[in-house]
């Protein structure tokens, strides 16, 4: 009988080997299957995204250089203030002010430099010596009988001080620079604020009107004529654009380019009937009705081909039955002087009432809207365009806070001045940085939260490149290269948005893991049942055997054969 | 006026010869500005089977100051400031460098043998798009793709499905109809037909399966300066328009010359809607009026339109006079074209004049005596073409094309057939039968032949032939093909419906015959537009001797296109649940196999000795006994 025990043991061994090897194949195969059927996910640089969000990698700084020029005019009463004294004084005062404001590091790093003295009269040399570098300005200080500052359009400021002594000069310079750069400092602070609580609210208020930054915009000027029976056939928009808009477009070209189109839509009636004020014989629109003004379904405003963001400027000529049409709160209330309104991030609307009594004007072509007719409308559109572009009018923000008059010179036809343009460059760069970082971090969050999402290599590439562009922009900023910084931040924004809106990011969301399991169910379930059963049985047998071993050790030698035989019969 | 009208109407051919205006333009003036203008027209014609054919035509001209020397400056401004010309079309033309654009949406089948030829040049069921694009920068394929996608968005249609597998470039058909465009290089001259220096290219695509409905009409109406709020377009009510036997809607953009030397040119946008109303459907009466057809009225002419006319091609009655009455009778009287058997009377209503006098809506009705015509002249279209599949089964089939020439003279025609790549044509099986007899010498009939073999999944097969159709003949082409077994994902969602195979197009120069609507095409209506007073006056006065000669000749021809029916081919269709079945089946088989093999390996087999089996209560049921 001892011969029998050997094949049985050998059988056991083979069986165990079989189970083991099959399980080994299964265990090795599972990860392989998992890997081959898994969605592809390229790794995003989460860590550096998080660091960027806290501005740990690079804190954006906006250096500003102000050259101070003192007048050479000698005062009879002895001590003439020296250039170095004034400059040192100003620098010291600014530092003191900063520490007073809780030591918060200011984003606009204004640096004062002692410049060349000047004659004191605004002559050709001065006019020619204008700074062409954004962020570098010249302050010309001269004595006068009243303290007064005038900010010229060409990056120049002329400060006239009443008493010609160092302290007063320092005071005046510090105050002027505070007025000129103060509001911008605030805006930038709000923009770049990483504090989650305050971030949203302030941004919404500030950026509500301003259209999102783009390297190019499509401006569409549309004449909407309520009814062709009002006699309007033609408008001289082409000429009006040339007359009023050209300087603006030219100056803005460092920030954004514009393409301009105009169209006329006849028979473009309002979707509702305006109310009638019988007292003044006027039809009027209340501010509540203005959101419904644009008849989007009927008026063809969208561009069929252009991929640039478009801004629409509508001139609405009401039909005779609605004419004259004004905007006011109710009957008897005073009407809007411009008869126009701005639609945030979309464009502007101006209502142009035609003179109903045409015989009085005795116009040669009553069906043509001339450039003169368009002038008030174009002025309104220019103001609206400035608002939409986010150009901050320095004179309005500065008026209240200074102790002496500060005059801001304007350029022709509302074109942005160099001060406003520099301001815009800085703010747009900051906005782009914040926007692209926000896009990237929400992309990162989305990818982290959606495990089924496919992330292809080019997304990863776009994200890293966007981060690199952001870094580049930040470096340019710190080197006072504002135009380059804007270009880099724009690249970053474009790349981050390409990554975010990539079509491959959504496609595979429809193939969740459940789908995969369902397909392989007919394979896995029938295979796993015998596998598991055999494994369990084997474990059970192993235990029994162990038990038997123990029993055997306890029991006498003589029972051994009997036990085995007994086993066999089972 | 009346006496001279026949020759005027004969004047306008497919190729425009604007002669009279030549005198008004002197050589010293380099630039002339053509006025921006809009014209609206409605042509109505009662058909012999009781249907009423209606054709709306809206023509918008964009003013251009074109001259060979002043070309670019004008072009850059042309597409920036829009007035009557729709901006959406202008932008498309500009950004994709389109020189000529023809887009037609059609529903229903045009019955050539009953109705003659339509005024609208395209009548194939579905959508047809063809364009001449400037290929200066070798970007034509991108531009064509952009064009189809943009038009698809503009007209809410599936035009974006016109991809490489559908697009063709016909060699003989669909020649450009305009003379120049802002994007073309300065055009040499009108009488020089050598176009080889102009790098423009044709792209043609059609979608036979596309349905046309209100969502396509709405954007179409938006292109009109007066929308559907005033003028003739106020008749466009989609409920009535789509309840017709045939409906076709088109946008054609091309450039035209305003003077003989083509100094002044303008870009012309022609929008047409063609509908055949089934008047007799309800009560068998052939009477109709504008309000019964459209359920709307014209209350005013479009104030922006230079001309606004309703034109009625009166029925051609024979034998009995005064079978019908037209109410109101036109103020200008009735023009007649042709003479004798071919006489066609035309009533023209000028809405501008009508509404200058009155503000009551424009009414127009035609009453037959006894509600039905007693005798009318039958329509015999010169060329009719049919196409059908032969053969059976899902493996192979055949295609037969029948072209019947009813004319008494030989006619030159170009035949174009585009077949999708999943029908594999065998050109060696191509045969021609003339009047039932197989032709051995095909050269007499087929003068030129272009064949582009299909490439799987990338381009269709194109068969194009220049034919000379003998007089009074029936020509039949046959060719056989194999049907391809498509991939699982290549089938449409409604796979068992089959695949639509688009129409074949026959382009022919037909001798002009009066009384059939289609002769003369869209240009025919230009004489009613009075675009330039001098020009039209000249034509009306018939002061051109050349044209009088032409009238006398029989040789005046019109270019027409005849569309065959669209076909439905059923390809071998798989069972679409198969992939899942296969996966499940395979998995089950593998797991069963694995289970049994695994079980076999888990078990011990040992030989049971018969000697010992007798000991164990005779349990010798098999040679082997299972052990666990």
From TrEMBL, chain A:
It is a multi-pass membrane protein. Pfam families: PIG-S. Residues 544-570 are annotated as: Disordered. It comes from the Eukaryota. GO terms for cellular component: GPI-anchor transamidase complex. The chain crosses the membrane at residues 17-34, 517-536. The keyword Cytoplasm does not apply. Pathway: Glycolipid biosynthesis; glycosylphosphatidylinositol-anchor biosynthesis. Keywords: Endoplasmic reticulum, Glycoprotein, GPI-anchor biosynthesis, Membrane, Transmembrane, Transmembrane helix. It is found in: Endoplasmic reticulum membrane. GO terms for biological process: attachment of GPI anchor to protein; GPI anchor biosynthetic process. InterPro entries: PtdIno-glycan_biosynth_class_S. Its main location: endoplasmic reticulum. Belongs to the PIGS family. This is GPI transamidase component PIG-S. The lineage of its organism: Eukaryota, Fungi, Fungi incertae sedis, Mucoromycota, Mortierellomycotina.
Automatic annotation (TrEMBL), chain B:
GO terms for biological process: attachment of GPI anchor to protein. One of its GO terms (cellular component) is GPI-anchor transamidase complex. The chain crosses the membrane at residues 578-600. It comes from the Eukaryota. Residues 1-22 form the signal peptide. Residues 546-556 have a biased composition (Basic and acidic residues). Residues 536-556 are annotated as: Disordered. The keyword Transmembrane applies. It holds the Pfam family Gpi16. Keywords: Membrane, Signal, Transmembrane, Transmembrane helix. PANTHER family: GPI TRANSAMIDASE COMPONENT PIG-T, GPI TRANSAMIDASE COMPONENT PIG-T-RELATED. This is GPI transamidase component PIG-T.
């Amino acid at each position: 009988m001892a011969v029998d025990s050997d094949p049985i043991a050998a059988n056991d061994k083979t069986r165990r080997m079989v189970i083991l090897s099959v399980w080994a194949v299964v265990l090795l195969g599972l990860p392989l299957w998992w890997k081959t059927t898994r969605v592809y996910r390229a790794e995003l640089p989460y860590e550096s995204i998080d660091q960027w969000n806290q501005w740990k990698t690079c804190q954006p700084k906006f250096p500003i250089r102000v050259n101070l020029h003192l007048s050479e005019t000698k005062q009879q009463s002895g001590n003439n203030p020296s250039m170095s004294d004034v400059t040192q004084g100003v620098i010291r005062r600014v530092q003191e002010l900063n520490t007073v404001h809780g030591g918060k590091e200011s984003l606009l790093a204004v640096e004062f430099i002692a410049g060349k003295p000047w004659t004191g009269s605004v002559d050709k040399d001065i006019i020619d010596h204008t700074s062409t570098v954004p962020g570098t300005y010249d302050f010309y200080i001269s004595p006068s009988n009243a303290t007064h500052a005038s900010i010229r359009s060409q990056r120049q400021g002329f400060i006239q001080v009443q008493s010609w002594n160092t302290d007063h000069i320092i005071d005046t310079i510090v105050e002027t620079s505070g007025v000129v750069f103060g509001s911008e400092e605030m805006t930038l602070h709000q923009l770049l604020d990483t504090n989650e609580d305050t971030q949203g609210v302030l941004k919404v208020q500030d950026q509500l009107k301003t259209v999102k930054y783009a390297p190019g915009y499509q401006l569409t000027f549309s004449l909407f004529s309520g009814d062709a029976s009002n006699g309007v056939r033609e408008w001289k928009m082409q000429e009006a654009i040339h007359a009023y808009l050209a300087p603006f477009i030219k100056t803005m070209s460092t920030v954004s380019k514009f393409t301009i189109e105009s169209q006329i839509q006849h028979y473009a009636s309002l979707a509702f009937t305006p109310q009638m004020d019988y007292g003044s014989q006027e039809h009027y629109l209340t501010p509540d009705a203005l959101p419904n003004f644009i008849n989007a379904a009927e008026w063809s405003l969208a561009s069929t081909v252009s991929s640039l963001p478009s801004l629409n400027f509508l001139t609405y000529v009401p039909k005779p039955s609605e004419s004259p049409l004004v905007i006011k709160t109710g009957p008897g209330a005073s009407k809007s002087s411009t008869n126009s309104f701005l639609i945030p991030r979309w464009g502007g609307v101006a209502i142009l009432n035609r003179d109903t009594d045409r015989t009085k004007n005795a116009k040669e072509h009553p069906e043509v809207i001339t450039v003169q007719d368009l002038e008030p409308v174009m002025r309104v559109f220019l103001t609206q365009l400035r608002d939409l572009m986010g150009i901050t009018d320095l004179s309005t923000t500065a008026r209240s806070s200074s102790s002496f008059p500060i005059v801001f010179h304007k350029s022709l036809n509302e074109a942005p001045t160099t001060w406003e343009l520099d301001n815009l460059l800085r703010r747009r760069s900051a906005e782009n940085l914040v926007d692209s970082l926000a896009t990237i971090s929400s992309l990162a969050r989305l990818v982290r939260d959606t495990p089924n999402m496919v992330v292809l290599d080019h997304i990863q590439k776009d994200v890293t490149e966007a981060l690199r562009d952001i870094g580049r922009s930040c470096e340019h900023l710190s080197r006072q290269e504002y135009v380059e910084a804007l270009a880099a931040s724009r690249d970053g924004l474009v790349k981050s948005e390409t990554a975010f809106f990539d079509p491959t990011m959504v496609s595979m969301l429809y193939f969740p893991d459940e789908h995969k399991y369902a397909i392989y169910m007919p394979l896995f379930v029938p295979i796993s049942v015998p596998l598991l059963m055999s494994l369990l049985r084997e474990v059970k047998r192993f235990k029994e055997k162990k038990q038997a071993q123990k029993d055997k050790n306890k029991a006498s030698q003589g029972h051994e054969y009997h036990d085995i035989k007994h086993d066999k019969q089972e | 006026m009346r006496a001279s009208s026949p020759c005027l109407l004969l004047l306008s051919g497919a190729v425009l010869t604007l002669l009279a205006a030549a005198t008004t333009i002197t050589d010293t003036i380099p630039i002339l500005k053509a006025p921006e203008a809009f014209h609206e027209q409605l042509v109505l014609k009662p058909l012999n089977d009781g249907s009423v054919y209606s054709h709306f035509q809206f023509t918008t001209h964009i003013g251009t100051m074109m001259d060979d020397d002043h070309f670019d400056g004008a072009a850059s401004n042309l597409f920036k400031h829009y007035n009557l010309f729709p901006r959406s079309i202008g932008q498309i033309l500009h950004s994709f460098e389109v020189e000529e654009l023809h887009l037609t949406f059609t529903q229903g089948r045009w019955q050539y043998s009953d109705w003659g030829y339509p005024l609208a040049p395209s009548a194939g069921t579905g959508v047809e798009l063809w364009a001449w694009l400037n290929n200066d920068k070798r970007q034509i394929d991108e531009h064509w793709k952009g064009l189809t996608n943009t038009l698809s968005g503009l007209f809410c249609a599936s035009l974006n499905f016109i991809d490489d597998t559908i697009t063709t470039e016909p060699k003989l058909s669909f020649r450009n109809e305009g003379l120049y465009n802002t994007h073309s290089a300065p055009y040499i001259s009108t009488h020089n037909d050598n176009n080889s220096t102009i790098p423009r290219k044709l792209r043609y695509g059609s979608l036979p399966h596309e349905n046309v409905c209100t969502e396509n009409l709405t954007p179409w109406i938006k292109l009109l300066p007066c929308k559907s709020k005033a003028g003739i377009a106020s008749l466009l009510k989609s409920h009535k328009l789509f309840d017709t036997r045939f409906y076709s809607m088109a946008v054609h953009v091309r450039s035209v010359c305003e003077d003989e030397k083509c100094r002044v040119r303008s870009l012309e946008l022609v929008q047409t809607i063609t509908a055949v109303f089934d008047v007799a459907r309800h009560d068998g009466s052939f009477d109709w009026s504008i309000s019964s057809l459209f359920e709307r009225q014209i209350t005013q002419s479009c104030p922006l339109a230079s001309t606004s006319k309703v034109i009625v091609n009166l029925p051609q009655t024979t034998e009995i006079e005064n079978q019908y009455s037209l109410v109101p009778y036109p103020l200008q009287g009735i023009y007649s074209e042709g003479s004798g058997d071919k006489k066609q009377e035309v009533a023209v209503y000028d809405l501008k004049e009508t509404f200058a006098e009155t503000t009551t809506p424009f009414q127009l009705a035609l009453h037959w005596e006894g509600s039905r015509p007693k005798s009318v002249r039958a329509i015999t279209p010169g060329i009719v073409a049919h196409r059908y599949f032969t053969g059976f089964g899902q493996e192979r089939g055949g295609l037969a094309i029948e072209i019947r020439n009813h004319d008494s003279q030989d006619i030159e025609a170009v035949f174009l057939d585009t077949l999708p790549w999943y029908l594999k044509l065998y050109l060696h099986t191509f045969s021609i039968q003339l009047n039932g007899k197989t032709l051995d010498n095909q050269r007499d009939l087929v003068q030129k032949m272009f064949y582009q073999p299909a490439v799987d999944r990338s381009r269709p097969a194109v068969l194009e032939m220049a034919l000379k159709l003998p007089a009074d003949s029936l020509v039949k082409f046959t060719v056989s093909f194999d049907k391809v077994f498509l991939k699982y994902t290549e089938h449409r969602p409604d796979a068992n419906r089959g695949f639509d195979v688009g129409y074949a197009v026959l382009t022919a120069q037909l001798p002009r015959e009066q009384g059939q609507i289609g002769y003369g095409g869209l240009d025919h209506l230009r004489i009613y537009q009075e675009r330039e007073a001098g020009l039209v006056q000249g034509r009306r006065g018939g002061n051109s001797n050349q044209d009088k000669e032409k009238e006398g000749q029989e040789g005046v021809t019109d270019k027409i296109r005849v569309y065959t029916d669209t076909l439905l081919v059923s390809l071998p269709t798989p069972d679409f649940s198969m992939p899942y079945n296969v996966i499940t089946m395979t998995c089950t088989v593998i797991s069963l196999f694995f289970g049994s093999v695994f079980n076999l390996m888990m078990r011990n087999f040992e030989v049971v000795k018969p000697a010992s089996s007798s000991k164990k209560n005779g349990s010798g049921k098999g040679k082997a006994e299972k052990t666990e």
